[in-house]
Amino acid sequence: VPLEAAMLQPLPMEELFSAPANQYVLPILGETPSGEPPDPKKCSPREYLEFYIFPVLLPGLAALLHEAEKEKCFEGKRTKFIPSDFLTEWLYNKNPKRKDESFTELFSIPFVKDWLKDRPRPPTPLSVLLSEEEASILIQSFWRGYRVRCDSEIQELRQWQKKLREERHITEVVKKFWTKQEAK
Description:
The protein is mostly helical. Among the domains are: 45-122, no CATH class; 132-179, no CATH class.
């Protein structure tokens, strides 16, 4: 079933409005209802949704679903795709008031900058950022390094290097070297 066709199905809105739900079929994506737009401060919730919210939001939701499909979000794995970020960026850039302005990335949007100043995000975990292949390479390289460091000959070499560093005061020699370099 195409995405647009799925979006045009009636919504169960009995709880929100007194009229039967079958009267509330969503408009075609991007199309505003015919007739003159009602006064946004005096119209009913239904009219407000049909004239002011759905014509803007539905194309954004359709774009969100297409992007989520591209990012393979429906495969059951964790992804780095954040739907609210995508929708915020999409709605901001498709705003008719910004018609002639260039594309703005999410973190360059003024209200997003202000929001993140007060509420910084935690860093994204590596498990989300790395592909399975990249993660397996990291794990394998760590394991190989660990196994090599356990080897008796390597242990002996490391002990010898440690002793050499202590006898020759290598850390102080390096500090003096960098002090001279910074003075130049």
